[in-house]
Amino acid sequence: MGNLLLKNFSKEILFECLIEELDGFMVFDEKGRYVFVSRKWQDITGFNEKDILNKYVKDVIPQSLVPDVINSGSPIRGQIITLNNKNGEEFHCICSYTPLFSNDKLIGGFTITSLESSGELMELTSKINNLLKKFDSYNINFCETNQTRYSIDSITGKSEVIKNLKSNIRRVARSSSTVIISGESGTGKELIAHSIHQLSSRSQHPFIKVNCAAIPAELLESEFFGYSPGAFTGAKPGGKKGKFELANGGSLFLDEIHQLPLKLQPKLLRVLQEQEIEPIGSQASLKIDVRIIVATNQNLEKLVREKKFREDLFYRLNVVNLTSPPLRNRKEDIPLLADSLLSKLNKQLGMAVPGISNTVKEKFQEYDWPGNVRELENVIERGMNFAWADTLSWAHIGDYFESKQISRKSSLYKGKTLAKARAIAEKQAILNALFSNNGNRTKAADDLNISRAMLYRKLDELNIDISSEV
Asked: Radius of gyration (Cα) for the chain, nearest Å?
């Protein structure tokens, strides 16, 4: 039957039939330029094949992720995004991008676009995400006790401070030295710990996390070192392995190390010095091979001076010190980070918010984020509940910042010409007026002391789309 089919229809005809069954199909070369677009893709976007062939995809569809696929060499599956057709009209779609290689060299790739209504997108995404959550629940135990859940790619950003951090993580991962990760709450210290283990020679062995603040002080010793059968009333008949023994051969991550009780600190020091543990109720010591990674949001040297942390333990731990930077020191990463968090939350919440408006991303960069990435994630999640299947705009989250201090020394002006800086300032003033008047153009024009006709000209000049920005 298969041979008969190929005798009557060439592979080219079968290929053409296949791609025309898809809502949209497009092929790009290694530089990100259009090579082929299907008829349905032309119908969806309004662009004619003759007008766009050999043009860069990003120049025609600015929201396209083709450059990301070319740079990473990795596919992107089921990305929900908002695109604009030739007439500037928005539509939601699901795009999957696949790179193509020849002899290990990237030669281009293709994109499949599925066009659905917002409701259908939400329903489809919800079903997919529920299945993914079920799969995750089967694997959560394994991930938490035996492997890292994150990698160095989970640390999002292209700023110099993040590039340097990733470079240092790769260097540190080569040894088994003890590491202190310092940084404010919400900056991603745990991601760094996971990355160190995942890149190390211990990556196939357990990665065990202990939050020193979450375990009652009286239980910490048994949690750390375990106990032998009958060690105390209520002990399990077969005894219990402690976290050090469970992590043998791998890494033990002690989060919030500054919360470790003083009376337990000498025992941790002994483990670091002797590389052995003694379970409660046991007369024998067990040799272990564990790399210790600790994290804190406190100044341990200050705690040492205040006699709240043992000096000898601090120096034993402080072999390598990595710092997780606060978000206010890498604001240029915020747009990329916001997109990454949106994608993550869409999966977790079973939602299909297609994107975040440029205005929101610009506003995000004017805030100092005392809660760091954790606060940014919470704000995005808050807005998603109001945006639902629409692009996240300032109208969905602006109320959160009403009582917050927004910096007026925006990094948006850095390195800009006078003309570009003026355009940014004008756009910001217009958007603020529109926000204050719930999108009413007449009232906004009055506040700006310009005519309504002038406002419309500025909206066109500055490419302000009120439907997505306000």
From this structure: 28
Instruction: Taking each helix axis as running N to C, give the angle between helix 265-274 and helix 217-225, from 0 to 180 degrees, rounded to the nearest 10.
Output: 10
* Closest CA relative to residue 78, chosen from 349, 308, 346: 346
Q: What angle do CA 377, 378, 380 make, to 5 degrees?
A: 65
The residue assigned the tokens 């740079």 is: 71
The residues facing 208 across adjacent strands are 252
What are the beta bridge partners of residue 295? 181
pTM: 0.63
Q: Which amino acid is at 452?
A: R
Check: CB of residue 423 under 8 Å from CB of residue 460.
Answer: no
Domains, in order of start, for the chain: 2-115 (3.30.450.20), 152-323 (3.40.50.300), 329-469 (1.10.8.60)
Compute how many other C-beta atoms are within 10 angstroms of the C-beta atom of residue 315: 11
| Mean pLDDT, the chain cut into blocks of 10 residues (470 residues total) | 50 62 82 89 85 88 86 77 78 82 82 65 54 47 56 90 94 95 95 95 92 87 86 74 93 96 93 91 89 96 95 95 94 93 87 88 92 96 89 90 66 64 78 72 86 85 65
Q: For tokens 């925006």, name the residue.
A: 410
Q: How far separated are the first and last CA of the chain, in Å rounded? A: 58
Distance from CA of residue 132 to its chain's centroid? 17
